Batch of 2 targets.
Target 1
Amino acid sequence: MVTGDALSLRRPTTSVHSVAVVGIGVLAWVATPGAEMRWIDTERSTLTVYVSATGSPREGTSGYVLEAPLAEGSLTDTDTPHLALVINVDELRVVDPGRLVADRQNVRMQLLSPEGLDAEQFSRITYHSLKIDQAETGAWFVKGELEMHGRFLPVNITVVRQGDRFTGTTTVFPTDFGIQAMRLHGDSAIVGQQVRIDFDIVLEAS
């Protein structure tokens, strides 16, 4: 596990022998000589977060959809790859098209409040790989570590690689990170017992 002091990702201005990645902050790793470190294209990459909501009497209320723009990310594209991602919590956006703008803003404020993600105290979410097993079919099994709400926990992900694009999905239980499910104002549903994350990550052109 990497401590908070190492959580910083900066694009190098000169050749680099060791690179601190992730600080989502990107997490620290040391590049071996000759390793190809590639940046993730944060403009073309997407993370869509589906927050569960159960027990609501309102028809059609089954959860909330959020976008989680990547702040930073990198991949060492070698035989022993390393992946690192960073999300700034205060950039999360509720995007449910069926909800009024005011409703989306209200949900966002509550999800980022001290009763939720507590964005003021825990401003970043990070993920980095510990080991990546690659199959000939293009599937990667990523054994990694997610840092959220001040806790580091293992999260393993199956990723499909097609060239410079990586897609997949994973499920996280916020209570594992000390984030309790909540009831949002105006809705009796219990929100946030389970979160699904769909990702579509694209590397910058090499």
Target 2
Amino acid sequence: MIRLLSPVLVIVLLALGAAAAGQPATPENGDGRFTFHRADDGYLRLDGKTGQVSLCNRRPSGWQCQVIPDERNALEAEIARLQADNAALKKELLSRNLPLPSGIHPDPPASGPAQVSETRNEARLRRVMHEINKVWRRLVEMIASVQRDIMNRT
């Protein structure tokens, strides 16, 4: 029984060690808020608290990090702006006792900011789930690889 458990234990320990080795190291201060990944032009800095990504480059004046624009936030901001414009136009038409174009209905009571933050939360959740899925798949692949290596040795 112990002889059978030891290969399984070795596999699990190797997989956990490999998974830990693949993760970026935590800074010496233990904060862990920022993680850095090598990129062609410098380093990508991921803010673990806000999810913001920046590209950091060495400049004559020192290291500088520029925030990489998040397309989703830009799209959500534009959608919110257009919705506000649309609501203002509808309000203006109704205030002048003019009918709305066919198929257009007056807006329900405002709930805009809650919807935008809900969408951002959903996007963050999707990103986190995607990363967890990638880590899980890598772990399963590593375990399968270790199992194949053990089978080939016997």
